[in-house]
Design a protein that fits this description.
The complex is a heterodimer.
Chain A (H helix, E strand, L loop, with lengths): L6 E2 L18 E5 L5 E6 L5 E8 L13 H8 L11 H8 L3 E6 L4 E8 L3 H13 L5 H20 L2 H13 L13 H4 L4 H11 L5 E7 L3 H11 L24 E7 L6 E8 L8 H14 L6 H9 L3 E8 L7 E9 L5 H18 L3 H17 L4 H13 L4 H13 L2 H11 L5 E8 L4
Helix pairs in contact in A: 1-7, 9-15, 10-11
Chain B lengths: L1 H12 L10 E4 L5 E6 L5 E9 L12 H8 L3 E2 L2 E2 H10 L3 E6 L3 E9 L3 H13 L5 H18 L3 H14 L12 H5 L3 H11 L5 E7 L3 H11 L21 E6 L4 E9 L8 H13 L5 H8 L7 E7 L4 E10 L3 H18 L3 H14 L7 H13 L6 H10 L3 H11 L6 E6 L8
Parallel strand pairs in B: 2-8, 9-13
Antiparallel strand pairs in B: 1-2, 3-7, 3-8, 4-5, 6-7, 10-12, 10-13, 11-12
Helix pairs in contact in B: 2-8, 10-13, 10-16, 11-12, 12-16
Classes of the chains: A alpha+beta, B alpha+beta.
């Protein structure tokens, strides 16, 4: 079903930020006169190209009361322009043997096509055209609103785990819009209008708010010429202003929540803490947190949570930790424990806390630390196999304000992390007063 | 509209890209066959290994044994327990994963060139000397049981499981590979050892390799990797008869959106009309955003977020399957539209325009699949299992292009039958007959 979906991305992956490979990446970047940033990633192994345009606008940039608008706008971008009306965009991509899709997250909205390298010009022509040429009919907007409501049904309403995540985020962020789901709150989605979408579109869709990433069997010179031809003529917009969102205040009291749902098969608990994200020129703490997540909850058989809760005294079916550092504002560090059926959540939580406490006492397992370093280095090699993955990595980083230099420095920053850095980061993050603990439990029906 | 037409002319003039995949057929000194694509740009190799039969080879009364066994292959081997094995693997940054479905057990491995030999030694141990330690068995058993409990509460899984049970009954295809709570609880270590020997044998082995390795190196690797595996395994299960007839089954479940799995019998992969059927399905429900069903159910009516249909070819059964999800009060309309489109395609086939467009899409998109070591290795092992020749990649687009409007009409009349469509609906659907 995924391949048929306009994707809505919930960014959460340990190695998501991955690691670039510096000079070996064959990456070129430049900026068009109208402010549009361009990144070209060369990979000539197959005659394929990935063409992506990222806008520096996401759900966290929506006006109050209009949750879901960024994602709704993304859907409506496929409706048409005067030049390519009524769904012609996807039809033309497919008629050229390509595939296309789009995604919305808190910090960005992206549109991408994967086609034979010799069809790049047409992709640029169409993508440039809909940057400012969108036309919307009232009826098609209403029908598409039904589609996003069904998307919410499918992703969220039908899944107690997704509802739990939504509630946890709302508790995690009391002031920052990361507390509002990307798909939107249902009641607000039902009220979104054509006028809302067009206003949002005109405000945010402009070359000086966009990043072009082209990856595959192309040369920087060819991409520059094509980009100048198709994107170059679009005037920059004065409406684009630096993003300044309400920030999260210091958290001074522990927060807890319990969601009960009859559809829960497997109760589990999640603990999360606010954590700093990767910042331009300052990625050291984020890099240390990548290790912290792996040390505590990476591979089940070797991570601390896995060893203690799944091996030494088996009380959990599954444990993990996550840190997703590629965001514009404060992100989260979190852990999940799925206890064995006979183990109450209270006990599982106590054991998890004991593991954290022990870790703060004993510090980093040096052998595991070296192994993680090796794996991060190897990921630079493996990731080159997927040009789409590389395009995603650069696009995402640039969309949250990092630079090409930051992306290329990231592997070295990761390699430079020391066990002391990890403990410093752990001391900063693990403040129980600044934590959110959620339990997902089964609601017993009569 | 004028610009569209000019753009279309432009693309039709351009020939689709050719997949430049140079496959070597390698036979190891020990007699193991593999397909290889050498690609020395990135210093790693991707291996895809399949043992045909998969969980379909579960012994009677032991459903779930092969799945549990598969989950234990990475939980200790040789003189290493689970933690030692994981530590060794991660220290090499080797990537090894095991999976199983009803037709095959799959092993995917990626090794860095710098320590490939050590990676191969590890994988060899996992394939030939898994320990099935008691604590590991209980740990993985607990995870599998957790997965089974989750399936019982997940509307998508409930729908698939019900559809398969109704369609295939006692054949392995009629039940989930995980098995049942009671069945998995009763499995013993001996069952796991027996399960391994049923499926992991050399007479059902398929291998592909892509990346930084030569044919000679691969030959030596193959002999080492599979040294010690038994020659023969259990006989393949027989043909699975599709027992479902047209109708609607509702599985009451308290959730806001109904999930629907639907389908009827299909067409074999080696049928002369298979490509015509493939073209037909691509237009009807398989071709992305432009399919008829996406247009009618999503774009025009907003009844769903996504709908897709597939030619679902298993080793011992062929189906046309589809999936859709729609709010409880709208799902009846979605089913009505699907039936109507099914009937329309069965009687009218597709149009000349649709045929031309889908051919351009299918032939143009095919070369784009070959864009990395991992994807190419996957495609090649799949080709071997389907019995396709080395020349398939070069001739596949010709087969698509050879399909005529009459071919599609003929196969549509034979294949699609709106009255035979069976729908399994999980949710609280409103306005459905028999509800």
């Amino acid at each position: 079903m995924m391949r048929l979906s306009r994707l809505l991305v919930a960014t959460c992956s340990l190695f998501l930020a991955g690691a670039g490979a510096g000079r070996a990446d064959d990456v070129t970047s430049f900026t068009l006169d109208n402010g549009m940033q361009v990144v070209v990633i060369e990979d000539h192994r197959a005659p394929v190209v990935v063409h992506m345009v990222w806008y520096r606008v996401g759900s966290a940039d929506e006006p109050p009361g209009k949750s879901g608008l960024a994602h709704f706008t993304e859907h409506l971008m496929f409706k048409g322009t005067d030049s390519f009306p009524e769904g012609a965009f996807s039809d033309l991509v497919e008629a050229n043997g390509g595939s296309d899709n789009a995604f919305t997250s808190y910090d960005y909205t992206g549109y991408h096509q994967r086609v034979a390298a010799d069809r790049l010009a047409l992709m640029m022509e169409m993508e440039a055209d809909r940057m400012t040429g969108l036309t919307l009919g009232e009826a098609e907007v209403l029908t598409e609103r039904d589609v996003i409501l069904e998307e919410r049904n499918q992703r969220t309403e039908n899944s107690p785990g997704a509802l739990f995540t939504e509630q946890r985020n709302a508790v995690q962020y009391v002031n920052h819009p990361y507390g509002i789901p990307v798909i939107g709150w249902r009641a607000e989605m039902e009220g979104l209008t054509r006028a809302d979408a067009l206003e949002f579109y005109r405000r945010h869709y402009a070359p000086n708010n966009a990043i072009l990433v082209v990856a595959g069997d192309v040369t920087p010179d060819d991409v520059r010429a094509l980009a100048d031809t198709y994107y170059g003529p679009i005037a920059p917009s004065d409406a684009v202003t630096p993003r300044a969102r309400p920030q999260e205040p210091p958290q001074r009291a522990e927060r807890r929540l319990t969601l009960a749902d009859a559809r829960v098969a497997q109760p589990y608990l999640v603990r999360s803490y606010l954590a700093p994200e990767r910042d331009p020129g300052d990625q050291k703490t984020a890099a240390a947190l990548v290790y912290l997540a792996e040390l505590l909850g990476g591979e089940g058989a070797t991570s601390l949570l896995g060893q203690k809760l799944m091996f030494e005294e088996p009380t959990a079916l599954y444990t993990a930790a996550w840190y997703s550092g590629t965001s514009l504002d404060d992100t989260t560090f979190g852990m999940i424990v799925v206890p064995s059926p006979e183990v109450p959540l209270q006990e599982a939580e106590a054991r998890m806390d004991a593991v954290i406490a022990e870790f703060m006492e004993t510090g980093v397992d040096l052998a595991l630390f070296e192994s993680l370093k090796m794996q991060l280095r190897a990921s630079n090699i493996y990731e080159k196999d997927s040009v789409a993955g590389l395009a995603q990595k650069y696009g995402q980083a640039l969309a949250v304000g990092l630079t090409v230099e930051d992306v290329q420095a990231w592997p070295d920053v990761l390699q430079a992390v020391t066990p002391d850095d990890v403990m410093d980061a752990a001391r900063m993050v693990f403040d129980r007063r600044a934590s959110v603990t959620g339990w997902l439990v089964r609601e017993e029906t009569q | 509209m004028i610009r569209i037409i000019s753009a279309l002319c432009l693309m039709l003039a351009a020939l689709p890209a050719r997949a430049a995949v140079d496959i070597q057929e390698v036979t190891s000194p020990g007699g193991i066959n593999a397909w290889l694509v050498e690609s020395h740009e990135i210093p790693f190799v991707a291996l895809e290994i399949r043992f045909q039969g998969g969980a379909g080879l579960d012994a009677p009364g032991k459903r779930g044994a092969i799945n549990l066994m598969t989950g234990l292959l990475e939980e200790g081997a040789g003189d290493m327990d689970a933690r030692a094995f994981a530590t060794a693997r991660d220290g090499l940054a080797a990537r090894i994963s095991f999976d199983v479905h009803n037709d095959a057990l799959s092993v995917s491995a990626q090794f860095l060139t710098e320590n490939r030999d050590q990676g191969v030694e590890l994988l060899h141990l996992a394939l030939t000397e898994p320990r099935f330690d008691d604590d590991a068995v209980e740990r993985v058993r607990g995870q599998v049981l957790g997965g089974i409990r989750a399936r019982q509460k997940d509307p998508d899984d409930i729908a698939s499981d019900r559809f398969n049970a109704l369609a295939f009954g006692d054949h392995p295809y009629g039940s989930d590979v995980n098995g049942t709570l009671d069945g998995v609880a009763a499995l013993t270590r001996d069952d796991l050892i027996a399960a391994k020997d049923r499926v992991m044998a050399r007479d059902r082995l398929f291998v592909s390799a892509v990346g930084d390795i030569t044919a000679e190196e691969l030959g030596a690797l193959l002999d080492r990797l599979f040294d010690g595996l038994p020659e023969t395994g259990a006989p393949m299960p027989g043909r699975a008869d599709f027992a479902l007839t047209g109708g609607i089954d509702v599985v009451p479940y308290d959730t806001p959106q109904s999930v629907v799995v639907f389908g009827h019998t299909g067409i074999p992969r080696d049928d002369p009309d298979f490509f015509a059927a493939y073209v037909l399905n691509s237009v009807l429900g398989g071709g992305g955003f432009s399919s008829r069903l996406m247009e009618e159910v999503r774009e025009k009516r907003g009844l769903t977020y996504g709908i897709a249909t597939y030619l679902y070819n298993l080793d011992h059964a062929d189906m046309v399957l589809g999936k859709v999800a729609s709010a409880n009060n709208r799902v009846a309309e979605a089913i009505e539209v699907i039936r109507a489109e099914w009937a329309r395609a069965a009687t009218e086939g597709i149009t000349e325009d649709e045929l031309d467009t889908i051919k351009t899409y299918l032939t143009g998109s095919y070369p784009l699949r070959f864009d990395g070591n991992g994807p190419i290795a996957n495609i090649m092992v799949g080709m071997q299992m389907e019995g396709l020749g080395l020349d398939y990649i070069a001739t596949r687009n010709d087969k698509v292009n050879a399909v005529t409007l009459d071919d599609v009409r003929r196969v549509a009349a034979r294949l699609l039958d709106a009255d035979a469509l069976h729908f399994v609906v999980v949710g609280q659907p409103e306005g459905l007959p028999g509800n």
